[in-house]
Design a protein that fits this description.
The model has no long low-confidence stretch (mean pLDDT about 90). The chain has one domain. A hairpin with a 2-residue loop joins strand 1 and strand 2. The two termini are about 35 Å apart. With about 220 residues, it is mainly α. A two-stranded antiparallel sheet has the order 1-2. The chain has eight helices and two strands. Helix 3 runs antiparallel to helix 7 and helix 4 packs across helix 5. About 35% of the residues are buried.
């Protein structure tokens, strides 16, 4: 049981990473990640909406008619999206201005609606919470990481702190739309390479174990 819970949580962090493995939710990924803080802010917003909506949907899943489940999901997601939009506008106006339209668009974010349809409406609240939290954290680290790379390459800073000498050349293209595609492609390629290396090592371990058992036999 514990292994199953761990798997549900960890899958969103790597194996089924919504952005870098499933390649969904690309619009906010490409648009708001011009700085690490923007990616972090968007990611935390997604966590809030995803976790809250998944738990509520799971709690009332047996009372939602199948014919109207999608409109019901959207209404629930829209409620929590409105809450986080108002909180950002009240307490983090600068971040709210940068994220702009992409906060309201969380309502139709395929990551959140997809988890509601594929998981939350079919599982108890505890599992829905674990799944949503893992997926949300995966989105957050993905957005923050991409934003950090673009910020470093474009401005020499990360979270506003100067880490590259100001005399160094800044690649402004990384702050523009083409830079978002470049960065995403590089990160996805690196992640695929890591997965390939890990799988090759796993296969070598399995073959070595099988050869050892054959010798003992």
């Amino acid at each position: 049981m514990q292994t199953s819970i761990n798997r549900e949580f960890l899958k969103g962090l790597w194996d089924e990473h919504p952005i870098l493995r499933l390649l969904i939710g690309m619009c906010p990924t490409l648009a708001v990640t011009t700085a690490a803080v923007n990616g972090l802010g968007m990611g935390l917003s997604v966590i809030f909406v995803l976790v809250c909506s998944s738990v509520i949907i799971s709690l009332i899943r047996n009372f939602i008619p199948n014919q109207v489940r999608i409109p019901c999901f959207i209404m629930i997601i829209a409620t929590f999206t409105t809450i986080i939009d108002m909180v950002l506008a009240a307490y983090f106006p600068a971040l709210h201005e940068v994220l702009g339209l992409f906060i309201p668009l969380i309502v139709v974010n395929c990551i959140i609606l997809g988890r509601a349809e594929a998981f939350a409406c079919k599982n108890p609240p505890a599992r829905a919470f674990i799944d949503a939290l893992g997926m949300g954290l995966g989105v957050t680290w993905g957005l923050t990481f991409i934003g950090a790379i673009r910020e470093i390459m474009g401005m020499g800073t990360v979270f506003g702190l100067q880490i590259v000498p100001e005399t160094a050349t800044s690649w402004i293209i990384f702050l523009l739309p083409p830079g978002a595609f470049f960065t995403l492609g590089i990160v996805v390629g690196a992640m695929n390479h890591i997965n390939h290396v890990m799988e090759r090592r796993r296969q070598q371990t399995v073959r070595s174990a099988a050869a050892g058992q054959a010798v003992q036999g």
